[in-house]
Amino acid sequence: MSKTQAMVKQAPAMPDACAMPACRTVQCRPRVALLSNPRSTGNIAQLSRIRSYCADHPDLFHYEVEHVDQIGDALRSIARVRPKVLVINGGDGTVQATLTEIHNGGHFGDVPPPIAVLPSGKTNLIALDLGAHGDPISALERLVALAQGDLAEHLVARELIALRKDGSERPVIGMFLGGAGLADTMLYCRDKIYPLGLPNGVSHVITAIAVLARLTLGVKASFLPPRAASLQVSTGRDGSLTGRFSLLAVTTLDKLLLNGQLQMASGGGRLKLLAVEERPASVIRTVVAILLGKLGRKPLDGVHLEGADEISIEGERSNVILDGEMFSAETGKPIRLRPAHPLSFVRLAA
After folding, report:
1. On the CB side of 260, how many CA atoms lie within 13 Å of its CA?
2. Which part of the chain is CATH 2.60.200.40?
3. From start to end of 199-302, where are the E strands?
4. From start to end of the chain, where are the E strands?
5. CATH class of the region 3-158
6. Confidence bin at 268 (pLDDT 50/70/90)
7. What is the pLDDT of residue 262?
């Protein structure tokens, strides 16, 4: 164990060791627990600032993990200090691993603390949905200030996705799943564009141009994203969708990629399903609707948007990505998605 790990795992001192005036009359314990993944891309440059900030705030308990396998141990330690807020400092993959451990591990009993997410990863879809963007330190300062008072007006309930495959009893928990061409595009961006060292926004623009070039020109090349594999998506209610989809997304978030608001019709299920057929016109319609904030307000040709309480996905050579973790959907071995028990999150902006 490194010296840094030992420091962050150490439980906070009891009242007689606290320097804060308020601790002289009440038990001193951290109001905020911060779980950091130093390997998250955004943390490479920011972690030293975060460590310095934590050192100056005795009411903040900081625990670092070097791998997601250590998150269970981290939550067991965090549960002992009974924080008012649990803040996750990492990308969407770190958030997913933490939500999975909270759901399956039962470390906080029936009432986990509200969860907040710092904007520390590459895509930050979850942080963005909760109003956290910009400098992670500024977001952390805001959360520490909020924890001093009543959090009720800043709390929102978020439905979660439980993913199971091959009859697994232990589901993986997340908030955004990308499949079909979207999963291939995400992998293409992560494996071929991000290593160029460009800013995130530039990387995403280059990826979008590459996708549109393949769709509109029909070009096949190793430097472009591959064509989406055929798959079948069933909602258990209105039959199934079969074909090739440039974009397949299942989410509980209010916002999608490109910061677009997702408008769902009343009724339906708790999971939001968006499937866009692999046709240039359908993709362009979807992008325009997202940018204008009109997706879901009226039907679009080649665009399927609905709510469901159960979704299964299967096909040959078809990948899906749930908040950064990849799974393979195979023929006869479907991936099944259902709502999980909702959790309370801290929203920083309206």
Report:
1. 20
2. 176-322
3. 231-234, 240-243, 245-251, 271-277
4. 32-36, 60-64, 85-89, 115-117, 155-165, 172-174, 176-179, 231-234, 240-243, 245-251, 271-277, 303-308, 311-315, 318-322, 325-329, 335-346
5. alpha beta
6. low
7. 59
* Residue 115, phi then psi, degrees to nearest 5: -110, 135
- The token pair that represents 3 in the structure block: 């010296």
Instruction: Tell me if the pTM is above 0.85.
Output: no
Q: In the predicted model, what is the mean pLDDT of residues 316-323? A: 81
Contact 302, 243 (CB under 8 A): no
Residue ranges with strand state E in 23-124: 32-36, 60-64, 85-89, 115-117
Please give the average per-residue pLDDT across 192-205, as a whole number: 84
Class assignment of domain 176-322? mainly beta
Q: In the structure encoding, which two tokens stand for residue 177, read together?
A: 């799943």
Contacts of 282 (CB under 8 A, 6+ apart): 246, 276, 300, 301, 302, 303
Least confident of 217-221, 253-257, 302-306: 253-257
Handedness of CA 302, 303, 305, 311 (dihedral sign): positive
Tell me the C-alpha distance between 199 and 43, whole Å.
15
Residue 307 predicted with pLDDT over 80: yes
Residue whose pair of structure tokens reads 């952390």 in the numeric block: 140
Task: Determine the Cα–Cα distance for residues 93 and 121; give it in Å rounded to an integer.
Answer: 9
Q: What is the pLDDT of residue 78?
A: 94
Determine the residue type at 223. F
